[in-house]
Amino acid sequence: MLFTDRVDAGQRLAGALGHLREADPVVLGLPRGGVPVAFQVARALGAPLDVIVVRKLGVPYHRELGFGAIGEGGVRVISDDIVRRGHVSEQDVASVERAETAELTRQAERFRADRPRVGIRGRTVIVVDDGIATGATAAAACEVVRAQGAARVVLAAPVAPPDAVSWLRTEADEVVCLSTPRAFSAVGEWYQDFSQTPDEEVVALLAQSAADPPQPAKPEDVEVEAGPVRLAGELALPEGAAAVVMFAHGSGSSRHSPRNRAVATALNAAGLGTLLFDLLTEPEAADRRNVFDIEVLADRLTGATAWLRTRTPVPIGYFGASTGAAAALWAASSAGTEVGAVVSRGGRPDLAGSRLPGVRAPTLLIVGGRDTTVLDLNRQAESALRCECRLVVVPGATHLFEEPGALDEVSDLARDWFTLHLTPQEP
């Protein structure tokens, strides 16, 4: 996975951290490069942002080997075992600690510019860096944050080698990493732009976050007009949302579907708006035949799209599940350029039948590897589509993606597809 820059990495990482929104977290960026990434995460989660200033205490004759770390507030973490095995004297410990404390104080004062530290005692804390090489600094940050009273420590980074991630899972309560390439030599090789982050940028981002606290996307109960029918829905538009995704629910489901709501949360965390709404009224949903009337469902979705266009001018995408995927593709086939992208989760695109060749929107088909019948139907639909299309099989997943990590993978795939096709891309 290649990132354009730290802004892109932060937006993608935010999508993978969407499940922590309800935990009311604090986001801490490791200076300097981790702060631009953390800024995007904090804004997407509606969380306060601060910097985590940590200084590793290195063995005098082998600086890469840390015998401890210090953090603000007088936090001091020492490995007595390394001190003993490294034959580090008390005088050496005191000397290294004095020098690193002075640097820690200088950095903290420089970055915060008289603002107090954000309190983390008893909170869920997300420690963010722009990438992890050995993991030593990240591990020290986790230790310091825990010593400062954090109730739960989550370490997040766009990229890291697999062995470092495995080790860091023993240091943090949770590790979220988007890419763990085996052929890893340096963090910068996974960025198109990995230019140095100056102190001034760190200062500016922290000041901006403090002056303009991020507001999470709060879903608004709406009545969606779909032709003559009024349908219950929830519209969430994060601040500055570049696009909005409409959810077309499948057979026997509704806007309350926990799976679609989980995906919507991940999209919101990545800065995308969402509209969850029912395609059928309650009396209509009671008649099972209506669930498979794809033409009616597609007409409802088309009408709802016209209604949404009156609420926001940003690009629109469709996310469909089961029979809702067929409705999304049917509607997309008649919507021209109105629909910018379509994602199907465990869908029945085959039910769109003869309308498939008319779809122009880039389409992503996601199917569980153990959902064999639906997988075959998606392969048939893929061959009928004439638009940009990709079929992704989630190994080991069944129709509802209930297996650990399966729905998270769906969310990541959907986020990346919509971000690629609905939001402006840097040249």
From TrEMBL:
UniProt-recorded name of the protein: Phosphoribosyltransferase
Keyword terms: Glycosyltransferase, Transferase
InterPro entries reported for this sequence: AB_hydrolase_fold, PRTase-like, PRTase_dom
Domain (Phosphoribosyltransferase) ranges: 20-178
One MF annotation (Gene Ontology) recorded for this entry: glycosyltransferase activity
Record has Iron-sulfur as a keyword: no
Taxonomic source organism: Streptomyces marianii
